Amino acid sequence: LSGEETALDGNYKLWWRASPASDGENRTMSFSLRARGNGWVGLGLASSPTGKMSNADVFIGYVSTDGTAHVGDYWSKGAGTPELDTALGGTDDLMQKSAIQAGGYTTVNFTRYMKPRGEGAANPTSVFDREIPATGSVDLILAYHDTSDESLDYH
Protein backbone atom coordinates (compact mmCIF):
# COMPACT_ATOMS: atom_id res chain seq x y z
CA LEU A 1 0.00 0.00 0.00
CA SER A 2 1.83 3.09 -1.24
CA GLY A 3 1.30 6.02 -3.53
CA GLU A 4 1.70 9.68 -4.26
CA GLU A 5 -0.55 12.62 -5.03
CA THR A 6 0.16 16.10 -6.37
CA ALA A 7 -2.38 18.78 -5.53
CA LEU A 8 -3.06 22.47 -5.00
CA ASP A 9 -1.89 23.61 -8.44
CA GLY A 10 1.24 21.47 -8.21
CA ASN A 11 2.47 23.27 -5.07
CA TYR A 12 1.88 20.31 -2.74
CA LYS A 13 3.02 16.71 -3.03
CA LEU A 14 2.16 13.80 -0.73
CA TRP A 15 3.80 10.36 -0.60
CA TRP A 16 2.71 7.48 1.63
CA ARG A 17 3.83 3.91 2.31
CA ALA A 18 2.44 1.24 4.64
CA SER A 19 4.65 -1.31 6.35
CA PRO A 20 4.28 -3.87 9.14
CA ALA A 21 4.95 -2.66 12.66
CA SER A 22 7.72 -4.23 14.69
CA ASP A 23 5.16 -5.66 17.13
CA GLY A 24 3.52 -7.58 14.26
CA GLU A 25 0.04 -6.49 15.35
CA ASN A 26 -0.38 -3.06 13.82
CA ARG A 27 0.88 -1.68 10.53
CA THR A 28 2.44 1.73 10.25
CA MET A 29 2.02 4.36 7.55
CA SER A 30 4.88 6.69 6.65
CA PHE A 31 4.10 10.06 5.10
CA SER A 32 6.17 12.67 3.32
CA LEU A 33 4.57 16.06 2.60
CA ARG A 34 6.26 18.69 0.46
CA ALA A 35 4.99 22.16 -0.33
CA ARG A 36 6.39 25.15 -2.13
CA GLY A 37 7.60 27.85 0.26
CA ASN A 38 9.09 28.15 3.73
CA GLY A 39 5.93 27.88 5.83
CA TRP A 40 4.03 25.05 7.44
CA VAL A 41 2.72 21.94 5.66
CA GLY A 42 -0.32 19.99 6.86
CA LEU A 43 -2.24 16.80 6.21
CA GLY A 44 -5.58 15.86 7.71
CA LEU A 45 -7.68 12.71 7.87
CA ALA A 46 -11.20 14.01 7.40
CA SER A 47 -14.19 12.61 9.25
CA SER A 48 -16.38 12.72 6.14
CA PRO A 49 -16.10 12.82 2.33
CA THR A 50 -16.74 16.58 2.39
CA GLY A 51 -13.18 17.11 3.62
CA LYS A 52 -14.35 19.48 6.34
CA MET A 53 -12.11 20.21 9.31
CA SER A 54 -14.64 19.14 11.95
CA ASN A 55 -13.29 16.15 13.91
CA ALA A 56 -10.26 15.79 11.64
CA ASP A 57 -6.98 14.14 12.67
CA VAL A 58 -4.35 16.65 11.54
CA PHE A 59 -0.56 16.55 11.19
CA ILE A 60 1.39 19.79 10.74
CA GLY A 61 5.09 20.44 10.40
CA TYR A 62 7.38 23.39 9.85
CA VAL A 63 10.90 24.65 10.43
CA SER A 64 11.11 27.67 12.74
CA THR A 65 13.33 30.65 12.01
CA ASP A 66 16.06 29.24 14.28
CA GLY A 67 16.15 26.04 12.16
CA THR A 68 14.31 23.81 14.64
CA ALA A 69 11.99 21.21 13.10
CA HIS A 70 8.46 20.94 14.52
CA VAL A 71 6.03 18.14 13.60
CA GLY A 72 2.84 17.83 15.60
CA ASP A 73 -0.22 15.62 16.01
CA TYR A 74 -3.33 17.84 16.10
CA TRP A 75 -7.11 17.52 16.35
CA SER A 76 -9.50 19.90 14.62
CA LYS A 77 -12.86 20.60 16.21
CA GLY A 78 -13.98 22.69 13.22
CA ALA A 79 -12.94 25.49 10.88
CA GLY A 80 -10.77 27.14 13.55
CA THR A 81 -7.16 26.51 14.47
CA PRO A 82 -6.42 22.84 15.24
CA GLU A 83 -5.10 22.01 18.72
CA LEU A 84 -2.30 19.64 19.68
CA ASP A 85 -3.65 16.27 20.80
CA THR A 86 -1.61 16.61 23.99
CA ALA A 87 -3.33 19.94 24.84
CA LEU A 88 -6.68 18.14 24.65
CA GLY A 89 -5.63 15.25 26.87
CA GLY A 90 -4.55 12.95 24.03
CA THR A 91 -1.11 11.74 23.00
CA ASP A 92 1.34 12.60 20.23
CA ASP A 93 1.26 9.39 18.19
CA LEU A 94 3.75 10.39 15.50
CA MET A 95 7.12 8.66 15.18
CA GLN A 96 10.24 9.29 13.09
CA LYS A 97 9.38 12.99 12.76
CA SER A 98 11.44 15.44 10.71
CA ALA A 99 11.05 18.69 8.80
CA ILE A 100 13.49 20.46 6.48
CA GLN A 101 13.53 23.47 4.20
CA ALA A 102 15.60 23.33 1.04
CA GLY A 103 15.36 24.55 -2.53
CA GLY A 104 12.26 26.66 -1.91
CA TYR A 105 10.26 23.78 -0.39
CA THR A 106 9.30 22.60 3.09
CA THR A 107 9.28 18.81 3.52
CA VAL A 108 7.70 17.09 6.53
CA ASN A 109 8.09 13.38 7.30
CA PHE A 110 6.48 11.20 9.95
CA THR A 111 5.19 7.71 10.67
CA ARG A 112 2.12 6.66 12.66
CA TYR A 113 0.16 3.51 13.34
CA MET A 114 -2.68 2.85 10.92
CA LYS A 115 -4.93 1.76 13.77
CA PRO A 116 -4.79 4.24 16.68
CA ARG A 117 -3.35 2.98 19.92
CA GLY A 118 -4.88 4.25 23.14
CA GLU A 119 -4.04 3.87 26.79
CA GLY A 120 -3.78 0.16 27.54
CA ALA A 121 -5.23 -2.89 25.83
CA ALA A 122 -8.73 -2.22 27.22
CA ASN A 123 -8.90 1.07 25.27
CA PRO A 124 -7.20 0.40 21.89
CA THR A 125 -8.25 3.66 20.23
CA SER A 126 -7.89 7.35 20.95
CA VAL A 127 -10.66 9.88 20.48
CA PHE A 128 -8.15 12.22 18.79
CA ASP A 129 -6.93 9.75 16.16
CA ARG A 130 -8.58 8.44 12.99
CA GLU A 131 -7.90 4.96 11.69
CA ILE A 132 -6.25 4.56 8.29
CA PRO A 133 -7.96 1.53 6.73
CA ALA A 134 -5.81 -1.06 4.96
CA THR A 135 -8.34 -1.17 2.11
CA GLY A 136 -10.73 1.40 0.71
CA SER A 137 -10.26 5.13 0.67
CA VAL A 138 -9.48 7.91 3.12
CA ASP A 139 -10.71 11.47 2.71
CA LEU A 140 -7.75 13.82 3.04
CA ILE A 141 -7.32 17.48 3.86
CA LEU A 142 -4.20 19.03 2.29
CA ALA A 143 -3.01 22.48 3.33
CA TYR A 144 0.09 24.63 3.50
CA HIS A 145 1.16 28.21 4.02
CA ASP A 146 4.03 29.37 1.84
CA THR A 147 5.50 31.89 4.31
CA SER A 148 4.13 31.42 7.84
CA ASP A 149 5.78 28.91 10.16
CA GLU A 150 3.70 29.08 13.29
CA SER A 151 0.41 30.83 12.48
CA LEU A 152 -2.21 28.14 11.93
CA ASP A 153 -5.14 30.52 11.66
CA TYR A 154 -7.76 29.94 9.00
CA HIS A 155 -6.03 29.65 5.59
What topology emerges from the helices and strands here?
Layout: E1 2-7, E2 12-19, E3 28-36, E4 41-45, E5 56-63, E6 69-76, E7 83-84, E8 95-102, E9 105-113, E10 140-144
Antiparallel strand pairs: 1-2, 2-3, 3-9, 4-5, 4-10, 5-6, 6-7, 8-9
Task: Give a verbal description of the structure.
The chain is an all-beta fold. The chain has strands at 2-7, 12-19, 28-36, 41-45, 56-63, 69-76, 83-84, 95-102, 105-113, 140-144. The strands form two sheets. A five-stranded antiparallel β-sheet has the order 1-2-3-9-8, with no helix packed on it. Strand 5 (56-63) and strand 6 form a beta hairpin. The radius of gyration is 15 Å and the shape is globular. The termini are far apart.
Name the shape in a single word: globular
Number of helices: 0
Helix and strand run: EEEEEEEEEE
Record the strand order, biggest sheet.
Answer: 1-2-3-9-8
What structural class do you assign from the helix and strand content? mainly beta
User: Roughly how much helix do the residues carry, as a percent range?
Assistant: under 10%
What's the mean pLDDT score? 86
Indicate the low-confidence ranges by residue numbers: 119-124
Q: Could you name the key traits of this structure?
A:
155 residues; mainly beta; five-stranded antiparallel β-sheet; 44% strand
Question: What's the short story on this structure?
Answer:
With 155 residues, the chain is an all-beta fold.
